[in-house]
C-alpha cells in the first residue's frame, strides 16, 4: 500500500500551508481531508479548512486549540512544523490526490468482490452498486481550474468566429425537426437539459419521436430510453410519421400495395440509421449513464442526442424520498449532458391541478416535483392542444344531458389536423414564447404550420405498385 500514499509528501503539504497560508485556497480546490492517508493528517487538514472558512489564522496556535490529543499526537504537529520547505506545492498536492484515487479504486475492488460473491444480491443490483461507486470516484477526482480573463475572451472570440462561419444560421445545435422552433431555440445545443412536459394525450411522445426521426434522417445517432412503451410501438409511430401511412393501418397490417412498398423502403432506409432504443421499463441514472457512454465509445454511432420517456419513471438510487430522488435524477442528467457534450431531452409529467383552471395552458409551476427540474433544465417546453380539452368538454356535456334524459347536439368537429402550441416556459440562453405547429392525428406527426418559411420536415416514400401482382413483401424484423 505504500505506493498509494507518502507520509512525507502529506507532511510537506501541511507544512507548506502553515508557512504560507495563502496557498490553502488553491489546495482546497483539489484536496479534501479524506484524501490524506494518515488519520491525524486528515484531522489537521480539516481543522485548517475550517479555520480558513471561518476567516481565522491558519497557524500552529489556532490548530492546537481545535484538535484534541487523542486525534493528533503532539509529535505529529512537531514533525509537520520541522519539515523542509517545498517550492512546487501543487505537484505534491497532485501526488496526494493520485494516491487517494488509487486507494478508493482498491477499496472498490473489495466492494466488487463483496457484492458479487459474498452478498446474496441480484446481479443487476450488484452492478448498479458498482457503477454508482465508480461514478462517485470519477466525479470526485475531476478537478477544474479557474480561467483567467485572457483565456475566457480567447474562447469566446473563437466561439463567435465559429458562429460567423456558419453563415449566421439560426440552427446551431441539433435540430428540433421544426423550422420555427429551431429559429426560436437555435436547436438543442451541447450540454443542454431539455424538459418537454404535457398532460396525457397531448402528444409529447409523438413530438420527441418526430424530433428523433429528424435527427436520425440527418445522420445523427439518437438514444431513446422508453420506460413506458415497447420499442415496437415506438417504431410503428415513427413509421406512420415517416411514410404517411395511418397508424391504425400499420397496427392491423391493412395496407395496399403502394403502402406495403413504401413501408419496405422505409425499413430499408431506417436500417441504415443510428437509433438505439432501450425499452427495459426501468432504469436509474447510473445505468443510463453507463449505457450512453458505452454507445458513445463507438464514434461510428455519432451519438448526438438522448431522449428519456419519461423522467418520473426513472428509478432512484438509495432509500430517499421521491422529491430528493427526482432532484438527483435531474441533476445527474444535466451533468451527463455536459460531460457528453450533447443535449438530453427528458419528458415530464404535469400536475393535474391545471385541469381546474379556465386556461389550461401549462406553466412552470405545473411541473411535477418542479423545483429541481426547473433549476437544472436549460429549456422547458410544454405541449398543448386546445382541441383535446374541447373534445373532453363536449363529451362531458353530452353525458350529462343523456343522464338527464335530454338531447344534446355536440358542436365539436373532430379534425384530422389540429393546431398544437409548443410553449417555451424557460430558455436559459434565449427568449420564451409560443411556437405553433400542426398535429396530424392519424400519422401521430407534428409538422410546421403551412405559413412557416420551410416545408414540413417529413419523409414520404412514394412508389407505383403493379396492382395486378400479388402483394409479397419481405418486411425486415424490428430489432
TrEMBL record:
Keywords: ATP-binding, DNA replication, DNA-binding, Helicase, Hydrolase, Isomerase, Nucleotide-binding, Primosome
Residue intervals of the SF4 helicase domain: 167-453
EC number(s) per entry: 5.6.2.3
DNA-binding keyword on record: yes
Reactions catalysed according to its record: ATP + H2O = ADP + phosphate + H(+)
Biological process, per Gene Ontology: DNA replication, synthesis of primer
GO CC list: cytosol; primosome complex
Molecular function via GO: 5'-3' DNA helicase activity; ATP binding; ATP hydrolysis activity; DNA binding
Top EC group: isomerase
Domain of life according to the entry: Bacteria
Protein's job: The main replicative DNA helicase, it participates in initiation and elongation during chromosome replication. Travels ahead of the DNA replisome, separating dsDNA into templates for DNA synthesis. A processive ATP-dependent 5'-3' DNA helicase it has DNA-dependent ATPase activity.
PANTHER family named in the record: REPLICATIVE DNA HELICASE, REPLICATIVE DNA HELICASE DNAB
Protein family: Belongs to the helicase family. DnaB subfamily.
Name used for this protein in its record: Replicative DNA helicase
Species name: Malaciobacter halophilus
Amino acid at each position: 500500500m505504500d505506493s498509494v500514499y507518502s507520509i512525507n509528501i502529506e507532511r510537506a503539504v501541511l507544512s507548506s500551508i502553515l508557512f504560507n497560508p495563502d496557498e490553502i485556497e488553491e489546495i482546497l480546490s483539489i484536496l479534501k481531508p479524506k484524501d490524506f492517508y494518515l488519520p491525524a493528517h486528515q484531522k489537521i487538514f480539516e481543522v485548517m479548512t475550517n479555520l480558513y472558512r471561518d476567516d481565522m489564522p491558519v497557524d500552529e496556535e489556532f490548530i492546537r486549540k481545535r484538535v484534541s490529543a487523542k486525534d493528533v499526537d503532539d509529535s505529529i504537529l512537531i514533525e509537520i512544523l520541522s519539515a523542509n520547505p517545498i517550492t512546487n506545492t501543487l505537484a505534491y498536492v497532485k501526488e496526494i490526490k493520485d494516491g487517494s484515487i488509487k486507494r478508493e479504486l482498491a477499496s472498490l475492488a473489495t466492494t466488487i468482490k463483496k457484492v458479487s460473491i459474498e452478498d446474496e444480491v441480484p446481479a443487476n443490483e450488484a452492478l448498479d452498486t458498482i457503477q454508482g461507486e465508480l461514478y462517485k470516484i470519477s466525479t470526485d477526482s475531476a478537478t477544474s481550474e479557474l480561467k483567467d480573463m485572457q483565456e475566457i475572451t480567447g474562447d469566446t472570440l473563437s466561439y463567435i468566429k465559429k458562429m460567423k462561419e456558419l453563415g449566421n444560421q439560426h440552427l446551431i445545435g441539433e435540430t428540433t425537426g421544426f423550422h420555427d422552433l429551431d429559429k426560436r431555440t437555435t436547436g438543442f445545443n451541447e450540454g443542454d437539459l431539455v424538459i418537454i412536459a404535457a398532460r396525457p394525450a397531448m402528444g409529447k411522445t409523438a413530438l420527441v419521436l418526430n424530433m428523433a426521426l429528424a435527427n436520425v434522417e440527418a445522420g445523427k445517432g439518437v438514444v431513446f430510453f422508453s420506460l413506458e412503451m415497447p420499442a415496437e410501438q415506438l417504431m410503428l409511430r415513427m413509421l406512420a410519421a415517416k411514410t404517411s401511412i395511418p397508424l391504425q393501418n400499420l397496427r392491423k397490417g391493412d395496407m395496399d400495395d403502394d403502402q406495403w412498398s413504401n413501408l419496405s423502403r422505409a425499413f430499408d432506409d431506417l436500417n441504415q440509421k443510428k437509433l438505439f432504443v432501450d425499452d427495459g421499463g426501468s432504469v436509474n441514472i447510473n445505468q443510463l449513464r453507463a449505457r450512453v457512454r458505452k454507445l458513445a465509445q463507438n464514434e461510428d454511432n455519432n451519438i448526438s442526442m438522448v431522449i428519456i420517456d419519461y423522467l418520473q419513471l426513472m428509478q432512484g438510487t438509495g432509500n430517499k424520498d421521491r422529491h430528493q430522488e427526482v432532484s438527483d435524477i435531474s441533476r445527474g442528467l444535466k451533468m451527463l449532458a455536459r460531460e457528453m457534450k450533447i443535449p438530453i431531452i427528458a419528458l415530464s409529467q404535469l400536475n393535474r391541478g391545471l385541469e381546474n383552471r379556465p386556461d389550461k395552458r401549462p406553466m412552470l409551476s405545473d411541473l411535477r416535483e418542479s423545483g429541481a427540474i426547473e433549476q437544472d433544465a436549460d429549456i422547458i417546453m410544454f405541449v398543448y392542444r386546445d382541441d383535446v380539452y374541447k373534445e373532453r368538454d363536449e363529451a362531458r356535456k353530452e353525458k350529462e344531458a343523456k343522464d338527464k334524459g335530454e338531447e344534446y347536439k355536440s358542436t365539436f368537429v373532430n379534425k384530422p389536423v389540429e393546431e398544437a402550441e409548443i410553449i417555451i416556459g424557460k430558455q436559459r440562453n434565449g427568449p420564451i414564447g409560443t411556437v405553433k405547429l400542426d398535429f396530424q392525428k392519424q400519422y401521430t406527426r407534428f409538422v410546421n404550420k403551412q405559413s412557416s418559411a420551410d416545408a414540413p420536415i417529413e419523409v414520404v416514400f412514394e412508389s407505383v405498385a403493379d396492382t395486378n401482382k400479388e402483394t409479397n413483401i419481405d418486411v425486415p424484423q424490428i430489432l
